[in-house]
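User: Run a structure prediction on this.
Assistant: Running it now.
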Amino acid sequence: MNNLKPFVIPIAIAVILIIVPSAFAQESSQASRKIDEFIGEVDRGDLKARLDNFAIELQNQPSALGHVIVYRSRRDPPSISQRYALLARDYLVKQRGIARNRLVTVDGGRSGCLMYELWIVPPGAAPPERRFTYKYPLERRTGVRRRP
């Protein structure tokens, strides 16, 4: 029995080194994944192409959810980001055949500019977090600014 001890410990270490990385690889495959991100008002053809690629990713993962996050600029009205997200969702449902219950739309809040993010969220994965957004309204100064 004592003769086996020097062999058991290296074998146990080798098994641990093989099993642990594969467990981490499976865990990382369950993380939310950003498919696309684009800034500004894109033309209709470009938006359709990006949403088509997103739809293909969703079809390749039938149990995953798709998150559409839209951030608005400081100058945009509050409802614009939700409206753009709903337009993207309607295109994916009506034109690409993605089930409505697989799509989540998120008003990302105010950002430096209008921006879209398209995410794939596998079952059991945490949904994507919103990026930094402005928490406080910008100060509005009234009156004429005078030079000293």
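The chain is about 40% helix and 20% strand.
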